Amino acid sequence: MRPILDIQHVTHAFGHHTALHDISFSIKQGEVVGLIGRSGAGKSTLLRCLCALERPQQGHILLDGVDLTTQTERQLVRARRKIGLVFQHFNLLTSRTVAGNIALPLQIAGRPRKDHAKRIAELLALVGLEGFEDKYPSQLSGGQKQRVGIARALAAEPTLLLCDEATSALDPESTNSILALLADINRTLGLTIILITHEMEVVRRFAQRILVLDHGRLVEDGSLLDILRDGQENQTLHKLLADIRPSLPAFIAENLSPSPLTEPHKTIIRLVLSGDSATTPLFSMLYAHYAVKATLLQGGVTTISQRLSGDIILSLEGEHIEQALAFLKTATQSMEVLGYVPSHP
Amino acid sequence: MSPLILKLILQSTEQTLEMVLASTAISVLLGLPLALFMIATGPRGLYRLPFAARLIGMIVDAVRAVPFIILLVLLIPVTRFVAGTSLGTEAAIVPLSIAGIPYFARIAEMALREVDSGLIDAVRAMGGTRLTIIRSVLIAEAMPSLVTGVTVTLISMVGASAMAGVIGAGGLGDLAIRYGYQRFNTTVMFGVVVVLIIMVSVMQILGNALARWLKH
């Protein structure tokens, strides 16, 4: 199947500063992709290139087979109508009602005026704002404004929905409901969605695939599990992951030493579990086979992109520690020794 | 207050209103396109033409730098050409408008500049044409500030029209100077001031109410 979006060797610079460096990836119909990076990683530049507001200096961007980089400004105006954009600060026109805001892309696309009301009612039902037609944006909460933003982005039936930090200005509760809405839209309409964010927590919820951007380069393209695995070696990933990973309790972190101690000690490890390994009775196996007692210090099992996954920190103590660690390495997605603490501090 | 004085005040009020309303209407009608031109051709504008933007900006500032009383005299040939005469209430509308156009243009430019650039990006990204952006974003979003700008312009025109007596345009200011000041007629002076206060207050109240209503 032809990809809906195909980015080929995109490079873009502002003066001497290279904002994007040889970026290539492609996205299939119906995928939900999280594009994550810290501020200054090049996310915004890539976004502006994707929605044809900026023309990359090198490379090609194919949207549904049309190369955006070779189009004239007049042709681009048409191409942009195939992309729905959801903004961090909603960007709703304050001079127009909810219905007026959603009608704007319909007017731009030249839909007959008599069909507007029906389409607007449909969209408001989809985003859960029935009867809000005549309200003004100033009368809405942040979450409601973003729902209107999403309805507006969907109005002209785009082939691709780009969400630029769509939940960054919202409280946790609204963030949850907006993410649930986007997941729902992906499921029911089969719409391809790209979530651009600096928050790992946001992409963790439902992005099936994560692209990590750092200093203008694409450093990772895979599932969250891939990133959890690679995060041990890669500092960029490590930092991004810090938001969503359990961290060591302070009283342990203070006493942690990088090498084994001469006195009796506990070994502190981090495990990443997925699928089967998340439901294996690891603790009893450790005790039965290696006489190793494991204590859970932090973390637990959650659902990551519809699969059961665990990210936990354990303290181990017992006779056959080395064998136990070797076993864990094979039985789990990733095992990392964080350090050692004295048994009786 | 004698009926004669009352008649004089009434007639002058009428002349002032005629000058103020006509010149403000012309200032808005021509000043708004001028402001849009300055915004659109300026840096980050929709049609970047930096040279044209600077030239227009300089002309606007040059006209605004000339005190109105001087402009009134300076523009006599222009007034005669446009209005057919350089004297009277109708003739005064010409210099008042020429002073008002750049005045309102600068105010409107500020109002348009205040429009969130995110909104312009949003509509551009939707595939909106530049005309759509100007109409549905720039003008629509700046409307409450533009209305406030019109109010300010109206009130400035009330002040400026007081000097139009120099070219025989009449009006309240002229009445106050000739009767109130030069003939020491305190009643006329007082009456004129009261009428001016009421006029300006009503303009301000109506302007504020309209701007508030537009703000939602």
From TrEMBL, chain A:
UniProt-listed Gene3D superfamilies: 3.30.70.260, P-loop containing nucleotide triphosphate hydrolases (3.40.50.300)
InterPro entries assigned to the protein according to its UniProt record, in alphabetical order: AAA+_ATPase, ABC_transporter-like_ATP-bd, ABC_transporter-like_CS, ACT-like_dom_sf, MetN_ABC, MetN_ABC_transporter-like, NIL_domain, P-loop_NTPase
GO molecular function: ATP binding
Keyword Lipid metabolism: no
Domain ABC transporter, first and last residues per copy: 5-240
Keyword list, A-Z: Amino-acid transport, ATP-binding, Cell membrane, Membrane, Nucleotide-binding, Translocase, Transport
Pfam families hit by this protein: ABC_tran, NIL
Annotated protein name in UniProt: ATP-binding cassette domain-containing protein
Organism: Bombella pollinis
From TrEMBL, chain B:
Keywords from the named record: Cell membrane, Membrane, Transmembrane, Transmembrane helix, Transport
TM helices/strands, residue ranges: 20-39, 51-76, 82-105, 145-168, 188-211
Membrane topology note: Multi-pass membrane protein
Gene3D superfamilies referenced in this protein's UniProt entry, alphabetically: MetI-like
InterPro entries: AA_ABC_Transporter_Permease, MetI-like, MetI-like_sf
Record's subcellular location: Cell membrane
Sequence ranges assigned to domain ABC transmembrane type-1 in this UniProt record: 13-207
Pfam families, per the entry: BPD_transp_1
Family membership noted in the UniProt record: Belongs to the binding-protein-dependent transport system permease family.
Name this protein carries in UniProt: ABC transporter permease
Species of the source: Bombella saccharophila
Lineage: Bacteria, Pseudomonadati, Pseudomonadota, Alphaproteobacteria, Acetobacterales
